UniProtKB/TrEMBL annotation:
A Pfam family matched in the record: DEAD
PANTHER family according to UniProt: ATP-DEPENDENT RNA HELICASE DBP3
GO MF: ATP binding; helicase activity; hydrolase activity; nucleic acid binding; zinc ion binding
C3H1-type domain location: 22-49
Residue ranges covered by zinc fingers (C3H1-type): 22-49
Domain Helicase ATP-binding: 96-213
Source organism: Emiliania huxleyi
Name under which the protein is recorded: RNA helicase
Superkingdom of source: Eukaryota
Swiss-Prot/TrEMBL keywords: ATP-binding, Helicase, Hydrolase, Metal-binding, Nucleotide-binding, Zinc, Zinc-finger
Keyword Zinc applies: yes
InterPro entries (alphabetical): DEAD/DEAH_box_helicase_dom (IPR011545), DEAD/DEAH_RhlB (IPR044742), Helicase_ATP-bd (IPR014001), P-loop_NTPase (IPR027417), Znf_CCCH (IPR000571), Znf_CCCH_sf (IPR036855)
SUPFAM superfamilies: CCCH zinc finger (SSF90229), P-loop containing nucleoside triphosphate hydrolases (SSF52540)
Length: 213
C-alpha cells in the first residue's frame, strides 16, 4: 500500500533527478579576464557543461580558450576581430562549441555579456558551410526569434555588420510596425542566410504564404 507507493514515488524522483543538472560550472574569473596563469590546468577549461548529466548524452563540448581555438570556424574569429573584439566573453566561450555542435541550448546572461554574437556567429558559420546558397523562394538557413521590434532592429544591425566577413551572406528582419512591403521584398531576394523576426509579424507572413520555413 502506502510503503510501495512511497517507494515508487522516490524511484520516480530519482529518475527525474538524473535528467536535470546537478552541478553548475563556476567560471574562472581570472581566465575570463585573460589573467589566469594555469593555462591548460585551469579547472574551468575542463569543467563539465551545465547540462551534462550521467544519463543525458551527448556530453556538451568544453568551452573554447581563445578566438584561435582550432575547433572554431575561421569566420567566428574574423567576425569578432572585425567588430573590435580580441577575445571571447565567458558566455561566448561556452555557447559557441555547443551551438556549432548542433545541440540544444538554454542560456541566461546579463545585458552586455555578448549573447548576440554568441548565437549569430554560429548561425553565419552554419550558413557559410552549406554546399550552395539559398535560392529565391527558399527559407533562410537560420531563424532568430525576438520579442520586440527594437530588439529585431538591434539584432539585424549586428548581423549586417558581419556581412563582409561572412562572404556576403545576407540577413533580413520582419517585425511589426515596420514597412511590410519592404520586408516582403527582403524575404523574396536571393540567398537569405538569416532572418530576424518577431513572432507576430512572422506568423502574419506565414499565413499570407510570404515566408517559408
Amino acid at each position: 500500500g502506502g510503503a510501495a507507493a512511497a517507494a515508487e514515488a522516490e524511484a520516480a524522483r530519482q529518475r527525474l533527478h538524473l535528467r536535470v543538472p546537478t552541478q553548475r560550472r563556476k567560471v574562472c574569473s581570472f581566465w575570463a579576464k585573460g589573467e589566469c596563469k594555469r593555462g591548460a590546468a585551469c579547472a574551468f577549461l575542463h569543467a563539465s557543461a551545465d547540462a551534462a548529466t550521467a544519463s543525458a548524452p551527448p556530453a556538451c563540448p568544453p568551452p573554447v580558450s581563445s578566438l584561435g581555438d582550432p575547433s572554431l570556424p575561421k569566420l567566428v574569429g574574423r567576425g569578432m576581430v572585425s567588430l573590435g573584439h580580441r577575445e571571447a566573453s565567458p558566455v561566448q566561450a561556452q555557447v559557441w562549441p555547443v551551438a556549432l555542435a548542433g545541440l540544444d541550448l538554454l542560456c541566461r546572461a546579463p545585458t552586455g555579456s555578448g549573447k548576440t554574437l554568441a548565437y549569430l556567429l554560429p548561425a553565419f558559420a552554419h550558413a557559410a558551410a552549406q554546399s550552395r546558397p539559398t535560392r529565391p523562394g527558399e527559407g533562410p538557413r537560420a531563424l532568430v526569434l525576438v520579442p520586440t521590434r527594437e530588439l529585431a532592429v538591434q539584432t539585424l544591425s549586428v548581423a549586417r555588420s558581419l556581412q563582409r566577413v561572412s562572404g556576403g551572406l545576407r540577413a533580413a528582419a520582419v517585425y511589426g510596425g515596420g514597412p511590410r512591403e519592404e520586408q516582403v521584398s527582403e524575404l523574396e531576394g536571393s540567398s537569405l542566410a538569416l532572418l530576424v523576426a518577431t513572432c507576430g509579424r512572422l506568423l502574419d507572413m506565414l499565413e499570407a504564404q510570404v515566408a517559408r520555413s
